[in-house]
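task queued by scheduler; priority normal; single chain, no ligands, no partner chains; default sampling; output format set to structure tokens
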Amino acid sequence: MKTIHFYVDFISPYAWLGFDALPRALEGISHRMVHKPVLFAALLKHHGQLGPAEIPTKRDWTYRQVLWLARQQGMPLQLPALHPFNPLGLLRLATACDADGEPSRYVCEKIFRHVWCTGQDAADAERLAALTAELAPALDPGSAQVKLALQKHSQEAMDLGVFGVPSWVVDGRVFWGQDALPMLRAYLLGDAWFDGPDWQAPAQCGVGVRRS
């Protein structure tokens, strides 16, 4: 049975889409899923990238696409009142719900729905307090222990080469984005392609031009 590390930030609508699709994508495959909250903004900074919502025309496309994908997938998705927002409170809450900083699927779904199924301000202090009371975290979300655990998850993700969310890592291989779920399924089923030359092909392709 493989262990899959799921690196997730609730700020991402694609993470919500991938989270919802995951059980169907991996149906019938024995596995252990470990949810690891990470700060997407830290990944972006590490790799020198802007987030999709930080580029105006890409922001518009992102929202249109995720609403379309949600309809196609048959799942609820409503844009929050404000986006992007500061997700630290939600990430720390998720991390605090488990002594090891690895929240359950139940906890993650509650937080995703808080963000993506109400149309309200996801970072509103009163809403966050109510959600915290409902989830009854094992640790204080504001504690140094929880903050450090979240930082460790984010650094671990960067060390593994994770550059976006949602990302699933198994056997050191990174599978990024909801559309990578069929690829992840194939790997878990032992598809021989992953031991062939195509997986290593990026290393053989040189960089022709670098923008300054």
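post-processing summary
- Residues 56-73 form the longest helix (18 residues).
- Strands lie at 2-8, 31-37, 167-170, 173-176.
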